[in-house]
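PT: before anyone asks, these are the final sequences, not the draft ones from last week. 559 residues across everything. Please model them as a single complex and drop the result in this thread when it's through.
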Amino acid sequence: MSDAGLLARQVHTTNRAFWRNPASAFFTFAFPLMFLVIFTSLLGSGTTEVAPGVEINTANYFVAAMAAFAVISATYTNLAISVTFIRDAGILKRTRGAPLPGGIYLSGRVIHAMLITLLLVMITTAFGVAFYEADVPTGALLGQFLVTVIVGAMAFSALGLATTALVPNAEAAPAVVNAIILPLLFLSGIFIPLGPDAPDWMKVVGDIFPVKHFAEATLGSFYGPPLPFEWSDILIIAAWGVAGLVAAIFFFSWEPRK
Amino acid sequence: MTVAIEVKGLHKSYGSVEAVAGIDLTVDVGEVFALLGPNGAGKTTTVEILEGYRERSAGEVSVLGFDPARRSREMRKRIGIVLQTTGVDPYLTVRETVALYAGYYPAPRNVDEVVELVGLREKSSARAIKLSGGQQRRLDVAVALAGDPELLFLDEPTTGFDPGARRNAWEIVRNLTSLGKTVFLTTHYMDEAQHLANRVAVIAKGEIVAEGPPSTLGGRHLAETLIRFRRPSGDLPPAIASLASVLGEDVELRVAHPTRTLHELTSWAIQRGSELEGLQVLRPTLEDVYLQLTGSEAGTE
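LR: through. Structure below.
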């Protein structure tokens, strides 16, 4: 079988196993929609200032924010936890003993995570259109939105693989991964809009890490002007992705850590 | 090529701990070779260096003509590996798992044939998560056989098996050798080495302390025979008494040529018209040799 054929088969196999774990598949899809309903119900009345003098409906804000959250949870959270699990179960080690290049195995998982991401973003958007009167991006805006989602999904996948190097064992994986991502989701305006009154330190932290840049790029490309869309956000996300990939190449472990 | 594996002066250190302290091995094509030793003796370190998982600290290693440290894909196409601890995707079925791995190799075996061979035909559509421990281990073996390898590594393949499952596993290994495959196995079970291997190397503290066919290992065929019986009333004949040592109620004789001694002993007993209670004639077992070679380490972690 050619390497491309092997890669396609890995994606297919990963997908088959993914849907057979109903709890995992359900939560991957349910969380963004559940949070969308909860946050919109609690905080969704009125408008939110997303840039000086630019306001949008808070419900619409959350549609884009939850699309960004969906990307992060289907790539970063999902890969960091599931790859730690298959590492500790000895599956990675066994695969390393077969004549399948390790890169093809991991690429299969990353591509699968990205396909799940696209599906999840479509569902979240459709949900937003149906219940919160969000506008679907079209034309050039759609192009920008897809670039944002795809660059974001690749970067957060690479960071997810790099994070496995920090996780001592599979039991600890959800705790470690959430300890990293949950504070960033709050500090980056995904769960609660930061607004102009947010403390300076929070803005600084948000500017350093990729989550806020991703949230802002998603929002800007989803609704278009007058909301700002900065290509510098995409560059910063991509830089984090490259850093994640380099870290993964150097520190990734194919065997359980003892 | 008649040599499958060649190892010269292999060393492996973890920090200041020398796990493998200079071993030499040669395994011929078609041979079943067992590396026998207690836990912590360096078996897994050695086999994982041969498989390409660990880098050696020093020495030369050749596996099917490849240096395993280079992790060549070509080498991995020709070997099968059963690791000591390993897993498969819990949500794939037995058949899907074997088919997945078979697809990685250029000339795999028939998937259903492999599933049948390890005795999982009835579990073919069961997901791995639903299998018992023994069945999962058999799936490990099936995955290792999927690519029809010429050389199979088995790292403690039957640890934790019940006796029936072990016999089945042994049968699978014997079938492989009848197909001309080479098998390198590690075990801490003497009987496993004795039943399966053409040649055994005993490893202790990272060194090979004995090597040879199971029947002659450690000079076992040259060792003295032990004759033991319950202490009779009255004195033993002088020729016997001079060789005997009395241990509690038992008399023991260690002799190089037991036929003559037994003849003298039994003639004496028949003449007296008495029975030699509890008469035993014992050859050293592989276990005796093993315990002697590996010292007090045997059976400990």
